[in-house]
Automatic annotation (TrEMBL):
UniProt-recorded name of the protein: Pentacotripeptide-repeat region of PRORP domain-containing protein
Family the UniProt entry places it in: Belongs to the CCM1 family.
Pfam family, one: PPR_2
Keyword Repeat carried by entry: yes
PPR repeat feature ranges: 530-565, 672-707
Role description: Regulates mitochondrial small subunit maturation by controlling 15S rRNA 5'-end processing. Localizes to the 5' precursor of the 15S rRNA in a position that is subsequently occupied by mS47 in the mature yeast mtSSU. Uses structure and sequence-specific RNA recognition, binding to a single-stranded region of the precursor and specifically recognizing bases -6 to -1. The exchange of Ccm1 for mS47 is coupled to the irreversible removal of precursor rRNA that is accompanied by conformational changes of the mitoribosomal proteins uS5m and mS26.
Subunit structure: Binds to mitochondrial small subunit 15S rRNA.
Amino acid sequence: MLERTAGCLETGSLRRLLPGPKHLAKSRRALHSGFWTHGAIELELSPLWQLMLQGPDSIEGSSSRSPNDGTVSENPGLFLDFLYPASTLKFLRQYPGLGVDRQDGKRTRLGLRSPGYRLYTSSAKKPSLALVPVDAETKESIEIKKRPIIHEPPDDAATIATVLGITTSSRYEEVWRKYRRLEFGSWAEERIRIQVLEYMAASNRIVDAERATSLFERSDERREKPEIYEIVIRTYLRLQNFTRANELYHYSLEKFNTTAGGSDIMLHFMTNNLWSQAFTLWTEVQLHENLTGPRYDMFKSLHHIEDLPNKALLLAKYVNKSPRLSSEVETLPSEALTKFATAVITSALLSAKHFSYATFWPLLRHIQGWGTETVPLYTQATNMLLSLGQLKAATVLYRQARESPIKNLLLPRSMLQSILQIFFKNHDLVGVQEVFADIFRFNQTLDRASHRRCMDEFARHGDADTVHALFEQFAEKYMRLESESATSPNPLASADDMAPLLHVHARRGEPKIVLEVFKNIRKKYRLKPTITCCNILISAYAQVGQIDDAFETFESTVNKRKLQPDDYTFGTLMGMCASRGDLENTIELYRVSATYGVEKSAAMVSTLVTAYLAGDRLEEAETICEEAVKLKFSDSRTRMWNSLLVAWAMRYDLVNVNRILQRMSKLDIEHDGDTYAALMQALAMVKQPERAWQILAEVMPEAGIPATSLHYAIVMGGYLATNSYKEVFVIQDRMLEQKRMKTASTKFLELRAAIHAARLTWGDPHGAMEIFEQVVQTMNPRDISDKVRKGIQHEPLDIAFPTTFFGYIIFVLSKNMEITSAKDMHQRFLRLLPADRRDTQPGNVTTALMSLKLQELDYDAVEDLWHQFVSDTRKRAQSLRLSKSLSRTNDSEKAEVVESDVGNVSEEGVLEDTKVDQQESKEPIKAAHRLALTKALHFYMMALARQGKINVMIRTVNEITDMGFQLSNQNWNEYIQHLTKFRHFKLAFKICETVLMDHWKGWAKLRALTSEKNRLPLEIRRKGKLLTSLRPDYRTFLYLTKGFLNIQAMAAESRANRLLLNDLEHDCSRTLNAIKTMVRTGDSLEREILG
């Protein structure tokens, strides 16, 4: 219809006489940019319409144009392609010969396209080189005056900016309109023709692509440049004219001996899955012998493909299905084809914007399968992954490079250093060992900083042998003395360089060796100890419980060596007090640090929070964490919040665990490995190890948190608690597959699982004794070097490992009535202890021995062990005596302390012991130690009950409760049962009523008959697992029922029993009501007790 309308308009010249308003020209552009230069139909407009539609710009200089002027006669604009079907458009564009006659006798292509169709855009290209700035005073906002047609060369260089007055990009219509005003063949037009071509080629519009190709076809020798051919080839491909683009590429290849435009041809082939044509194109370049011109990367344009990795996977599939060449080992594709595919896949692998786990590793496996991986590939891929923050992927790639079967795969030093820094950050000792081995294997060297970091990392994991070997190399290179006899300070090093030697033995619980190394700082290396060295020495004493030595070292550090203590110094001393539950002295040290000018750190506040948590003061601890958010610290606050998470987790309180996690997120407190460990521990406590494993296997890798042996130990403990013993070994195997080392925690959990599994299989633990012997034979202090340990006893570090294992195995053997084996184990344990430790028995070993002696019916030994245990526990529960320099006690209190000290010394120790006993009796037991007697009390009450010493039992319970100790729920129930057995009915009922009945929730069977929910809320059931959750159990009610029946039977004949019955009805109503409403079940336990 448009063609018919246009056909009725007659040609005239009125358009050149009458100027038209500019808004009409604006309407013209709004209709379609190519409608008014439609070359397919040659619209014949009347002169009036031509003048009104073209506007005043066409009047100027129109008389100077000749009929043969290409800028006037040719209509290179876009055809009305939106009027044609898409299939017709595609057909016509494949044949460049189709077109209409033009006035110059040439034929032009039909500029048809489908609505909105776009091919390869150049929107990301840089602006044309022809677009150079003009004078600084020229601005885009200033209207540029019309320039007359230039007939003579100007003084300045001819560019789009100087000739057309346009200095910005993307003004394609304006550039084209002003360019067409130039006289064809003039000096200016010839010199900016190629520049306009470049300018138009940068556009995404098809009309501009048509203009660019028309300029190229009319250009002379000025176009004979490789970069111009590259632009035009890309433009023709955008116009879907592959034939012409291919012709120009081969012409450029032969004329310039370069591959200009080849990357765009390759892009076309890869986009359309034309693998054989792409391989042929690449092969032609490889076989070309005279590529002397500039080399263009054949694959540089592939990044324009949105699904480049998937295209590369399709290419790999094509290669693997191609005709194969037989080899001795297996059949492989042709070498040239795999080389080509490797080049394409490498481009996809190294494209950062296309990175995806789903495609990266399959693509890499294809290259590895063909055996075409190279060092540059691994190096560049590692750098790309590091730039994207994919640290775990970078380490996996490094380990695959190490395992490559290709010989002489020499990884560069830069790559090894980058990977080493990741392992340092994640404290991955196995990774550090791998890089360290590669550095020496490739005859490379470590710089001083990396050498020092290696020593620190091995020291952190307690590997003393490696640290000493590394230090010898370090000292030889950086700490060599000019003369052994010289006395001047060593100018080449600092005492901090010896910190790893001190640190490794402190982590292993070896304070004597730490002291020896500390002395060598001045004696052997002529260095002055720093505060860092002194801090490590204090820490070494603190970890093995040598409190006096730790305080003495602090005194000498401050007074003798005149060193300024720092936050680490006071943090260590505070931690020593907090580990004993000594909240008062922890707070005192925190306050005293200000008098030494120590700036508070997050680590000090974290230790303070730990002390409050040990005292069961969780609300106050959380308040401190909230207040710490407002303070400015240089270190992280995560540790104190992690302590809160663990405290709630150990109380089976998932609600508060979730609340603290949400609070951390709201306050932007970063999550670390210990945060996830706390959450996993909370799930393991409520018997959900599957969810804990899900966090370890899925959530932590996504968050970029490396898993440690502790995380695996938590999951193993969760499965152990649910009696899933096989899963414990499965988790341990997966830990070893991930190259995580066994620790004391994982070994202990493995031993426990093996013993339980052996009992189920053979009925006794003998099947697991092999594991125990293996653990004992390979016992190494480095296994205990982790600061956070699961299942390991809270004993001094130097004896914690043997105490945990031997105490458990002695207990197991005693339960299995293997008395002789248990005694042998105890003797072996004593031989392993240091000489100064054999006088005091560790707590868990004492309880194991009480179980052993109970089985032997040696009740006197049980009683002796009980009294020893109580005495040792009271000593551990005592507050520490701070030194004078660490106490802010006033002068009068100091004088009293001095006088009491003098009095103690004059009495030759007798009064001193009395004073200590009085102090012990007066000082209340701290919250951290109130439940310390529960296990030992269980065995002692059993021994007393077997002897019939019920009065001693009553007196013992009264004494320890008066001291401040607490009984667990199990202790109270067993105590009541013992009382009823020996007919102490009134006391038994009274204790049950006052101590246990407050938290009793009634009979489940009776709740089922009411409208109330039968099962108790999950939170209540979980809190019922706490030692301090006091309530009577079923066995206790059965014994009380038996006692009540006896009282009723005797009440008919005894007035005392009648009075007792009345007292129970009045004082113990809840207990009696529970007894009376108890539903008889007739189970074996009921028949055993009630008969």
